[in-house]
From TrEMBL:
One BP term from GO: protein maturation
Protein name stated in the entry: Hydrogenase maturation factor
Entry keywords, A to Z: Iron, Metal-binding
Source species, domain of life: Bacteria
Iron as UniProt keyword: yes
Length: 381
């Protein structure tokens, strides 16, 4: 396949569904309960809602939306730290656009910008480095966010700053790692998952081998999946084949992008600049051991956490927010008490309503939501 239309072909989708249906029927009969498959990555959540894939799959397959949207798991305290840095005099604070509207305890970055802070949206950390070169009288801070997918470009930017001797540039590092997150999900007593759609973008960097523990220790099938409808359906079919044959393996549906060994150069840059933190706080999930990275001692002169004094407070989500339960797949977005009422994409209370990869935003945009009163049609029935 070479062109995107081929990955959206309705006939091919129907052919895959015809293979999936009998395998689901057989497994559900054996187990006497519905099947739960988790898509780890927010990109998959977005694709599933956008193309209505959940409706195409048999009713007895429930897709559980996992914690793989980095904006969604950013705790309020870290947003407050961003605002505290951005409101310092002579600071230009730079960030990707989807982090601008994530609520902090008092304000978001967008609100801080409206109040006068110099906060700018960039498309890459190298754009932020360019700003630092252009404004030597300012300290330019880049808000580093994301899983292993975005970590290499941040690491390479720090190496570039070192090479060019640019010292008015720093990184507020909030990068997180996928493997401890999946482990935390597997250890959660609330969830009983039958298989995983593995994250395609992260795997492009780390490869397929780090997931072996999912199959070997937890006996769950995992298929690394692409992001087009045919990718997702083919991956579900591959998981169903494994379940049918009693196999638990890590398979790679996204082989056109994901090499088994990952991207060695990117991994080299990451390990040169970053080291694991002992723990990192996640919104709604609490602290997860070794799930975040910080800058190594040799690169601390570009570390915003060393240059600025930060509030560094742990802030609980508002009581009415149920982001943690949605992130763990314990409830569906529309089951949150404030979904579509107090919390909408225009007035987000939780981060899952901000990013297009957030389950609440995706469900609100593409789900069966009654736009008149923002209540899902299931609740009206
Ligand atoms: S509706 Fe809003 S508050 Fe509720 S889980 Fe979703 S993002 Fe969080």
């Amino acid at each position: 396949m070479r062109f995107v239309d081929e990955f959206r072909d309705p006939q091919m989708a129907e052919a895959l569904l015809q293979r999936i249906r009998p395998l689901v029927d057989k497994k559900v009969q054996q187990l006497g309960r519905p099947l739960q498959l988790m898509e780890v990555c927010g990109g998959h959540t977005h694709a599933i809602f956008r193309y209505g894939l959940e409706q195409l799959l048999p009713d007895m397959v429930e897709l559980v939306h996992g914690p793989g949207c980095p904006v969604c798991v950013l705790p309020m305290g870290r947003v407050d730290d961003c605002v505290a840095i951005a409101e310092q005099p002579d600071v230009i604070f730079t960030t990707f656009g989807d982090a601008m509207r994530v609520p902090g305890s008092k304000k978001s970055l967008l609100q801080a910008k409206a109040q006068g802070a110099d906060i700018r949206m960039v498309y890459s950390p190298l754009d932020a480095l360019q700003l630092a070169k252009k404004h030597p009288e300012k300290e330019v801070v880049f808000f580093g966010l994301g899983f292993e997918t975005t970590m290499p470009s941040t690491a390479l930017t720090i190496l570039q700053a070192e090479k060019e001797g640019i010292d008015n540039f720093s990184l507020f590092c909030n990068h997180i790692t996928i493997i401890p997150t999946i482990k935390a999900v597997l250890d959660s007593p609330d969830l009983h998952l039958d298989g995983f759609l593995g994250p395609g973008h992260v795997s492009m960097i780390i490869g397929t081998r780090p997931y072996e523990f999912v199959a070997q220790q937890y006996q769950r099938p995992m298929v690394i999946a692409g992001f087009e409808p045919i990718d997702v359906l083919q991956s579900v079919w591959m998981i169903m084949q494994q379940l049918d044959e009693g196999r638990c393996e890590v398979e790679n549906q996204y082989g056109r992008i994901v090499p088994p060994e990952g991207n060695r150069q990117a991994l080299q840059a990451v390990s040169q600049v970053f080291e694991l933190r002992e723990f990192f706080e996640w919104r709604g999930l609490g602290s997860i051991d070794h799930s975040g990275v910080r800058m190594r001692e040799e690169y601390r002169q570009w570390d915003a956490e060393q240059k600025f004094s930060l509030p560094n407070l742990k802030i609980a989500d508002p009581k009415s927010c149920q982001c943690g339960e949605v992130l763990k797949g314990v409830i569906k977005p529309w089951e949150c008490k404030v979904f579509g009422r107090a919390c909408t994409p225009e007035t987000p209370m939780g981060a899952l309503m901000v990013s297009s990869e957030g389950a609440c935003s995706a469900y609100f945009t593409y789900g069966k939501v009654n736009q008149a009163d923002h209540i899902p049609s299931e609740q009206l029935a």
